[in-house]
Amino acid sequence: MNGKGLIEKMPETFERGALGRLRLHVLPTKRFKTFAVSLFAGIPLSESGVTPTALTPFVLRRGTRSYPETIAFREKLDELYGAGFGFDLYKRGDYQVVQFRMDIINDRFVSHAGSLLQEALRFLGEVATEPALEDGRFRARYVEAEKTTVAKRLEAIINDKIRYAGERCVEEMCRDEPYRLPALGRKEDLAALDAGSLYASYRGWLEQASLDLYVAGDTSLEEVRQLAGEAFRLPAGDPAGYAPARTRPARSEAQTIVERLDVGQGKLNLGLRTGTLYGSEDYPALLLYNGLLGAFPHSKLFVNVREKASLAYYASSRLDGHKGLMTIQSGIEIANYGKALDIIREQLAAMERGEFGEEDLARTKAMLSNQLREIDDSAFERIGFDFHSVMAGKERTGEQMIQELEAVTPDQITAAARAVKLDTIYFLRDRKGEG
Amino acid sequence: MEQLNYPKLQETLWHEKMENGLEVYLLPKPGFAKTFATFTTKYGSIDNRFRPPGGETIRVPDGIAHFLEHKMFEEPEGDVFSTFAAQGASANAFTSFDRTVYLFSATRQIPENLTTLIDFVQNPYFTDENVEKEKGIIIQEIDMYRDNPDWRVYFGLIEALYVNHPVHIDIAGTAGSVRSITKEMLYDCYRTFYHPSNMMLFAVGGVDPEAVMDLVRRNQAAKSFPPGGEIERIFDEEPLQVRNPRMSIELPVSLPKCLFGFKEAPGPVRGEEAIKRELASKLMLEALLGPSSELYQSLYDDNLISDSFGQEYNTGPGFAFSVIGGETRDPEELQNRVCGALYEAAERGIDPGVFERTRRKRIGTFLRMMNNPEAIAGEFTRYRHKGGDLFRIVELYETLQAEDIDSRLREHVSPERLAVSVVRSGTA
Question: Rounded CA gap, A351 and A299, in Å?
């Protein structure tokens, strides 16, 4: 019997409910000085849908029925004590997810008439379900301006070479899957979108997307159910859900892609297929594998590429648990390409041979457990972690994950290592000596 | 040990100054799983010429404070990261213009991790060999930043603004300056700036104040340090004029990146007056240029700015400047439009309604920040170094008047003290 749970304070847990198509997840807690709110809307990634879906939140943040002018919309946020408002767009598994975030201080710290949580949910509900319209469609001026904004964002990816190389590597690896598409959409699709067609696609998105509303703060499921019921005008229906991604095997022989740009430092990125998804029982072993290989300063990549060979400032690996991918990234002197690649491949091979020490395994378990415990102190991280399990369809709290990690054996890690297959080597280098 | 209560913020701070001069502050956050701790020295990239207590004036290579930060992690027994990892802590460090910060966050073994943090920073171990080995790593770090247009345009602006003040020197130095660093130089800097009387320990989160203070007290009592003294930092006089009103760099970018700013006399260096001036400057910039300002919206409508447009106010020992801008299709037009609006606002004054709304926004943003241990630690230490108190910020905002913002604006903007930095793609 594990008696730990009796001694340590029980962590607060999410209470769940639903309002028509909207699933509700509420974390009642008095620990924070704020209410944290997130709305996740996910639909399957598709060639035809990726760009309108990406453009939609940009247009929604320009104005609502009550605050149709952007300045008034933003002034309202200032008046709500500088409420934080924003959105993210990302790919997760085979879905394109839009996440709206709001973060507003608890009334008890300010002299405010009325409930700030109510105002925040009303605001977010309008953003998502009652946008500013003209003639029954989006305002054309907003759509045109935000098309420019999205185009600029897409073009700007190349400015950050670390990010650019990372995205290019995944794009090359997933060339035959929807996952090759950028979460921000495709520039060439923007021109065809207008206020009418985008509004039609937005209505379809509201009808089809899986919708999850999270609130963490000094509130209850009942209060959120009531406030959200007033705030969100959603089409009728039942909650949708998420299906796990289809995993694919790696190429039988790894491909090498070399791209040239005006850069001083070379970026070496490797794309690998893990075959194991977040919801799988084998996932904790894969997490430990990634930790031993490259997630920490005591990991093989950091120690061998950086500390021993002095080849790089950064050298790390990262898991994508919803798609079954792992990536390795490092910034190196261009002439050191061969040397760095050899060292990285040697670390992958060493993991397959089960060559890692007990001490390093203990360190990796301690670091991962710590990361999982730290999540409890941030409302948005609690929300983000919970949404991972909602998407994966696998209920697993941080504490459960820690227990599963503790139980993993070295053999299970070696088995995970043998299932990881190199698919793509991507190198971004300078233009010198170009043919 | 003294206890400072801030009932409005529902926070209690514990403080003690150790016999050797080390300042220790603890902020317990009941219910928090994590402890976040920083061990900070008032020593950064600008401290390149100084006279140690009772010594001769020394001039050191650019980037040495940052180099020292990298090298501190090496101990005779090996890498400190491994020790932290075994204790489930993630550790890191960074160097700024005037500070070097060592930190960890952990949910378990807090006494052990605090001891590791204090001991490794108080135990330098430099050899010719380990100093040499680090150079390759740091040169790759420098090369990474050289390819980063946001970093280049930002440092380009500081270089354009400052003639003598070392704030214009890249924090990591250059490949050349890094190669010239020796272990003897590192020890000179270490002995001068890592004396406990020049340092502060701050821990926030799941800490037991009595037990932690006792641990630090015993840890420090067991070590001996020479008596501390005044460190004289030597800066050449900085003219009010900018070095170069226009800096331009070529790098592949999708759109030009353009930052401009005004340099001003640094004003009071320490105390609440200095902090009020900083808050007034930030409020002023946000009121006029923030996302809910009319100017922002009209620049956005005219496709002159994107969401990357922003503004900040940066001040430290001997320097104070604003940074305004982002990516733009037309740097010159952007600069003219923004500066024109600022000069006009300086004559007309700020709208009292806008002032109130912006103040409310900044107070709310501050309160939201109080959820975040990392941000609290960073800001607390920064304000403490200036002789101020993070937990009085809301009260200071409340004492600001619209007139304070107006006079701040009139003082701050002047075409003679303006410089611009642009990064754009080459024509080739």
Answer: 11
Nearest CA in chain A to B146: A264
User: At B77, which CATH number?
Assistant: 3.30.830.10
Provide DSSP, A239-302. Answer: -----PPPP-PPPSS-EEEEEE-S-SSEEEEEEEE----TTSTTHHHHHHHHIIIIISTTSHHI
DSSP string, A17-37: EEETTEEEEEEE-SSSSEEEE
In a domain, B239, yes or no: no
Q: How confident is the model at residue A2 (pLDDT cuts 50, 70, 90)?
A: very low
Is residue A238 situated within a structural domain?
no
Quick one: average pLDDT of B36-51? 97
Do the chains contact at B303 and A333, CB–CB below 8 Å? no
What does the DSSP 8-state code read for residue A307?
Answer: I
A297 touches chain B (CB under 8 A): yes
Contact between A312 and B360 using a beta-carbon 8 Å cutoff = no
The reported pLDDT for the residue numbered B341 is 97
Quick check: is B343 in a domain? yes
Q: Which A residues 393-432 touch B at CB under 8 Å?
A: none
pLDDT at B419 over 50: yes
Q: Quick check: A55 and A186 in contact, CB under 8 A?
A: no
Q: In the structure, what pLDDT confidence band is assigned to residue A4 with cuts at 50, 70 and 90?
A: very low
A133 in contact with B, Cβ within 8 Å: no
User: Is residue A241 included in any domain, yes or no?
Assistant: no
A174 Cβ partners below 8 Å, 6+ apart? A180
Contact flag B137-A145 (C-beta cutoff 8 Å): no
Question: Which backbone phi and psi does A365 adopt, to 5 degrees?
Answer: -65, -45
- Please state whether the predicted TM-score (pTM) of the whole model is above 0.95: no
- Nearest-Cα distance to chain B for A343, in Å, is 16
Question: Is B90's Cβ below 8 Å from some Cβ in A?
Answer: yes
A218 with A301, same domain: the answer is no
Torsion of CA B32, B37, B42, B44, to 10 degrees: -100
* Chain A residues within an 8 Å CB radius of B365: 82, 84
User: Taking CB atoms and an 8 Å limit, are B140 and A265 in contact across chains?
Assistant: yes
- In the predicted model, is pLDDT for residue A9 greater than 70? no
Q: Which of B212, B233, B254 is the last residue of a domain?
A: B233
Out of B23, B69, B134, B159, the active site residue is: B69
A80 neighbourhood in chain B, CB within 8 Å: 364
Contact B81 A162 (CB under 8 A): no
Domain encompassing residue A413: 255-429
Q: Are residues B81 and B222 in the same domain?
A: yes
ipTM score of complex = 0.91
Q: CA of A268, closest CA in chain B: separation in Å? A: 13
**The dihedral of CA B6, B7, B11, B14: what is its sign?**
positive
Neighboring chain B residues of A88 at a CB cutoff of 8 Å:
none
Which chain A residues are closer than 8 Å to B258 by Cβ?
none
Which range has the worst mean pLDDT, B212-221, B325-334, B382-391? B382-391
B69 is an active site residue: yes
As a whole number of Å, the CA-based R_g of chain B is 23
Which amino acid type is present at position B43? Answer: Y
Q: Looking at per-residue confidence, does B227 or A410 come out higher? A: A410
Chain A, 210-269: which have a CB under 8 Å from a chain B CB? 261-265
Q: How many CA atoms lie within 13 A of B286 on its CB side?
A: 22
Whether the CB of B6 is below 8 Å from some CB of chain A: the reply is no
Query: Could you read off the pLDDT of A203-241 as tens digits, one per residue?
Result: 999 999 999 999 999 999 999 999 999 999 998 899 999
